[in-house]
Specification:
The structure is a homodimer. In chain A, about 35% of the residues lie in helices and about 15% in strands. The first copy, chain A, has twelve helices and 13 strands. Chain A is elongated. Chains A and B meet through helix 6, helix 9, strand 9, helix 10 and strand 12 of A and helix 6, helix 9, strand 9, helix 10 and strand 12 of B.
Chain lengths: ~425, ~425
Amino acid sequence: MSALIKGNVIVGQSGGPTAVINSSLAGVYKTAIDRGANKVYGMLHGVQGLLEERVVDMSEHIKSDLDIDLLKRTPSSFLGSCRYKLPEIRDNTEIYDRIFGILDKLEIRYFFYIGGNDSMDTIKKLSDYAILNGSPIRFMGVPKTIDNDLAVTDHTPGFGSAAKYIASITKEVIRDGLVYDQESVTLLEIMGRNAGWLTGAAALATGEDCEGPDMLFLPEITFDVDHFMKKVTDLQKVKKSVVVAISEGVKVADGRYVCELTDNIDYVDAFGHRQLTGTSRYLAGRISREMGCKTRAIEFNSLQRCASHIVGRVDITEAFQVGGAAVKAAFEGETGKMIILKRVSDDPYICVTDIYDVHKIANVEKTVPREWINEAGDYVTQDFVNYVRPLIQAELTPIMVDGLPRHLRLEDA
Amino acid sequence: MSALIKGNVIVGQSGGPTAVINSSLAGVYKTAIDRGANKVYGMLHGVQGLLEERVVDMSEHIKSDLDIDLLKRTPSSFLGSCRYKLPEIRDNTEIYDRIFGILDKLEIRYFFYIGGNDSMDTIKKLSDYAILNGSPIRFMGVPKTIDNDLAVTDHTPGFGSAAKYIASITKEVIRDGLVYDQESVTLLEIMGRNAGWLTGAAALATGEDCEGPDMLFLPEITFDVDHFMKKVTDLQKVKKSVVVAISEGVKVADGRYVCELTDNIDYVDAFGHRQLTGTSRYLAGRISREMGCKTRAIEFNSLQRCASHIVGRVDITEAFQVGGAAVKAAFEGETGKMIILKRVSDDPYICVTDIYDVHKIANVEKTVPREWINEAGDYVTQDFVNYVRPLIQAELTPIMVDGLPRHLRLEDA
């Protein structure tokens, strides 16, 4: 096998991290080495770092099987990430010439990019440019995103662990909400600007030992604050502790985000943009003032994308697999493709990898289908739950050292 | 042994829960049964529920060894909790007569209360009243609180797991903060109104694979916003991702909480009181406006007291032990005491239980000693770390069912 592989490999990570994004990196690295790659480079901070020739030789940082297992369990993007969109090829060939010049200097033949929609756009453009200019370099996309909003693939690695984390802590917070014998409303604010997959995952808390959240509000459904207030008021009449999960991305009819309804401007970013946070606080304030009961606004925050202490084994295994499958496909001659996951069966859960034209994936956003949300628009259906349930199964124990999960740090390795 | 035990046992939980408070409940229940107790009652929502005669027969809800192990791993107070302070005996004997009337009706001889400062006040008053009135009922306190602010005892069960959770997610968030190649400041808001034990625990994230938080601000030290801004600005010059942990309870020189400095009044409780949250958001807003860099405000929120998916085994074991030790002591004749933990050695960690007069514990708040905070007032010392480190050691795996941690619910059992 190794005789077939000419040239070096480079891999990068792009966009927001997931708890298992480094398992895909491990999958790319290990499979490339096992299949005879000469050098495997990592680009620091994705294409943005590549443009500054900031690359590392991965073998200098991953030296043992233990390092591979630590890498899989390390949160955040090991190589660093970026949010960098390449221009259209027709608008600016200079930047492409620079990238290909750097790749040629490193004798790269295989380029892997682990990311979501924007990253697949990068793979699309680079593979197009290679074909247009007769470059032999092959470009493959490796899917990841907690948001699960990539098209064609059944789901994306990273989503399962985020869903497992959300369902687990939703169970804990629901139990916590029952501690005092008093009326209370708890609002759980969950990530997902346009797609409600993660908010819907809170429904998985429901089971023999947990009554689950009372309502779920996904960004796919227009949010009506008055209707919401009435529903919460009605619920409070029949149960003391009301727990509602709500997407950070819910919008009212005029198109504004709920978090933009507040007059508070405490928290704007460097460009003066208000950050997309505060939905639960705004609604908690309304409930507190209008209903007079105790409220709690709990933002599940960045932990949704970095809680590697409670990853799912199905998810982290699939994350590794898509990395390995991308290497296999590229080494066998594919380019301009992304690895997808194809579900053969829900129960027993069977899922295989396949390859798919990245042109049909890049820049397409997959939201929760309307038929997987109930008619009232405040919960997901059993079909939704059946779809997510297999993806949160099983655990991969953290490697605990001196009481804490151990990670692999680029500087250390 | 069983021949010695006359009458029934009752146990209650009071104050805020911890991730391991039910391990103490399991310790009381199992030890009482093993030592020949007839009936073990649980009061629902502590003394407040007892006054309404809301009690359950625990053996109807804990039927197997599996139930015991599920109970230990269940977050929130299994029996429900309350925040109820008994009046001084001299001011109102009627309420005491009612309580003792109910206890006599249930043929109670042993009363256990799992809680913090306020709960120990309850034990103190009830045991005093028993002695004053010749009641044979024995009253014992079982310590718990994530805040670690109980006097005399080396530490309190519940603190270790909260510290382990905080240190673990601090590691994850620090790693997450490095993902983009840009300047950013992350503020971690940690529980503890008057005592900085939990905020200090974020320092434990520091290790071979983690640089740790850059600064820690405990409520024991008066907070100076301008000084804070200058320190953050200086730090940002030497490192891109600055991470600061700050107690929700930090106050400025005039006595106001930092979260009270904001003009925002979105979020008041039923009594018009502003909730003690928003410290990190206020400071993030200042940093964002004045420094112009990306900021994140992350509230560690209720998960600090209910993240039973990552409890410490030292902690959950000690929580069980203090419950058992309270039963043993009461059965041997003690009353008006609390179980304390006495550390024999840091390394190897050796800790034993003892009993102590509850009069000297109730209503006393133990804060972090000044000498365990550095001179600048923005970090803890190595002595602090050495004190906490043994308490976060080892793990107790959750019992995972269908992908999620399984709990024991009172209604189910």
